[in-house]
Specification:
The protein is an alpha+beta fold and 244 residues long. It has two domains: 6-145, Jelly Rolls, CATH 2.60.120.10; 153-240, Winged helix-like DNA-binding domain superfamily/Winged helix DNA-binding domain (Arc Repressor Mutant, subunit A), CATH 1.10.10.10. The chain contains eight helices and ten strands. It has helices at 6-20, 25-32, 115-124, 126-152, 155-172, 187-194, 198-210, 226-233; strands at 37-41, 46-48, 56-62, 65-70, 76-82, 101-104, 108-114, 180-182, 214-216, 220-223. Strand 4 (65-70) and strand 5 (76-82) form a beta hairpin. The two termini are 34 Å apart.
């Protein structure tokens, strides 16, 4: 059952865009007036599949989502995790066919915004088009960090970096009180994101706990030593562009 109005969803989008760049009153009103269809999806339900030709982009309003790529033999690579305020398929404005899938990680409320309306508003407001373009560039910066981690960090560093990233994104939207964050991600999903087996994933999580960096409890984690976690990850949050 949907409990979030389209108006509330678009207000979330305005706040997200205002963290990236300055909106004029007219640009803000244009975003708030976009048509949006709000739906609630069950956990692991696809939002869009590889090969689809979507006619809308989606805004995560509540819950979490993830990008993924399926390979032969049931293998899966998770490409990113997404939290409220993210628009994970904004690139589909200019790419006709999806080359990966996007699914709800938890029960999630999603606002679907038609491409034709996004095109129209960006033609009217070039400054807004620039902010949306910058959103996709931030997305690309996150991909570069993940690629660097897969290629050059050990498993401990990869996991530490992911937890730092998730904490910073959640803290920016007020969902990380006292350095405690929800973590509705299974060990299998963490392994699929970081290129680790379930056994290795568990071992790394235990090591993070043993070193006094993080504690885990009931699908959540608390950071007990932020400085230590940052050192382990060699983490610099600049790529997330969250300074505002």
């Amino acid at each position: 059952m949907v409990s979030v109005s389209s108006q509330a969803a678009l207000g979330l989008l305005v706040r997200r865009l205002e963290r990236i760049g300055q909106l004029s009153d007219a640009e803000r009103q244009a975003v708030e007036n976009l048509p949006a269809k709000v739906q609630t999806l069950r956990p692991r339900q696809d939002i869009v599949r590889e090969g689809d030709k979507p006619e809308h982009s989606c805004l995560i309003v509540e819950g979490w989502a993830f990008r993924y790529k399926l390979l032969g033999g049931g293998r899966r690579q998770i490409l990113s995790f997404h939290v409220p305020g993210d628009v994970p398929d904004l690139h589909s404005l200019h790419i006709d066919t999806m080359d990966h899938g996007l699914a709800a990680l938890t029960q999630a409320t999603i606002a679907f915004i038609p491409h034709e309306c996004l095109f129209e508003v960006t033609k009217r407001f070039p400054g807004l088009a620039g902010i949306l373009w910058r959103e996709t560039l931030i997305d690309a910066a996150i991909f570069r960090q993940w690629i660097t981690g897969m290629g050059q960090r050990d498993a401990f560093g990869r996991m530490a970096h992911l937890l730092c990233e998730l904490y910073c994104k959640l803290e920016a939207i007020g969902l990380a009180p006292e350095q405690r964050c929800n973590l509705p991600i299974t060990q299998i999903e963490l392994g699929d994101a970081l290129g680790l087996s379930s056994v290795h994933t568990n071992r790394v999580l235990q090591e993070l706990r043993a070193q006094g960096l993080v504690t885990f409890r009931s699908k959540a984690f608390s950071i007990t030593s932020w400085d230590g976690l940052v050192r382990a990850a060699e983490f610099n949050p600049a790529y997330l562009q969250l300074a505002k």
